[in-house]
Amino acid sequence: MRGATEHREIEFKFRIPADLIIDIDDILASTHHTGEPLDHRSMDATYYDTASLSLIRWGVTLRRRSGGGDDGWHMKLPLRYSDAGTPARGMDEIHVDGTASLIPSPLVSIASPLIRRQELVPVARVVTERSPYLVRDDQGEILVEVVDDWVALEGLDVDRPQATRFHEIEVELLADSKQAQQVARSIAAALRDAGAQPTTVSKAASALGRRAGDPPDVPIISPPAADAGQPSMPFNTSLLGTSTACSKQTLLFGENSPTQHTDCTSNVDDCSAFSRLLLRSSIQTPWLFCAKNFPGCRQNSVKFATPSFSRNDYRQ
């Protein structure tokens, strides 16, 4: 993707109760580490979604942020669950640099299978006062970043006009090593012992209220109408809805997902076309598509023939 960078964000997130005072230096000292304070950051982010919050209900966030040293547009995409059935903690983040007021077309293309033809509009504003600290190993290599955030949120929907404030601390791995994981876990354990509350709720979801936690939507597709004088066609709308949901999950988490492979995100036109082909293929052959990609969907008693396709097919 031209002009974009990608980053895998793996972190532990904690909310700090209003009556609890936590000092980052004390937390790090209790784990025998020293924090290197960085410059304070004042960040202002506006989050975009559809009016029905299609993106965030799939775990995807899209924002335009300034003041964090990485001004521009950011899209975060959830990692899939591990084979053991546990969440793969973290997000894949795509950053498009710049001050453009319009959403970059590559990010719109990635979001398009989830939002269909809905418009992306501002839905929340997040203002964060951040105090970051770096934790290094004995050789000076950076392992972990700890950020102490004071957050003010505002949902831009007229039904939720009031702002929300809270205190949050995040522990993010900056090195892909066992040592970095051990350091991050020890800091997270110290925070829990001090009374911090682990959370997986994002800042944007907090601003948007309960609707952000609603299940992802699935297109409602009406059965094909029968010709006059002809019997109606058998059609299982529940089956079609299930296969469409599986298609969207594949777009986000599957082996060919634009969120997982840089060679795919480097050509967004290919991604968009491939996404459409996946949806068409699943509608034609619902259970076989689900059985191939999601073992829990297997129904051996239902069989459909499926067209084969290769990578070159979705370029057409």
Characterize the structure shown:
This protein has nine helices and eleven strands. The chain is α+β, with helices and mostly antiparallel strands and 316 residues long.
Summarize the structure in short.
The protein has 316 residues and is α+β, with helices and mostly antiparallel strands. It has helices spanning 24-30, 54-57, 105-115, 178-193, 203-208, 237-253, 262-265, 268-284, 286-293, and strands spanning 4-9, 11-16, 35-37, 41-49, 61-66, 72-78, 91-97, 121-136, 142-155, 163-173, 197-198.
* Count of runs of 4 or more consecutive helical residues: 9
Pairing-aware structural class of the strands and helices? alpha+beta
User: What is the ordering of alpha helices and beta strands?
Assistant: EEHEEHEEEHEEEHEHHHHH
- Integer-rounded radius of gyration: 22 Å
Number of strands: 11
Overall average pLDDT: 75
Main sheet makeup = 11 strands, antiparallel
Q: What brief labels describe this structure?
A:
single chain, 316 residues, alpha+beta, 11-stranded antiparallel sheet, 28% helix, globular, disordered C terminus
Question: Which helices and strands appear, and what pairs or packs with what?
Answer:
Elements (H helix, E strand, L loop, with lengths): L3 E6 L1 E6 L7 H7 L4 E3 L3 E9 L4 H4 L3 E6 L5 E7 L12 E7 L7 H11 L5 E16 L5 E14 L7 E11 L4 H16 L3 E2 L4 H6 L28 H17 L8 H4 L2 H17 L1 H8 L23
Antiparallel strand pairs: 1-7, 2-10, 2-11, 3-8, 4-5, 4-8, 5-6, 6-7, 8-9, 9-10
Helix pairs in contact: 3-8, 6-8, 6-9, 8-9
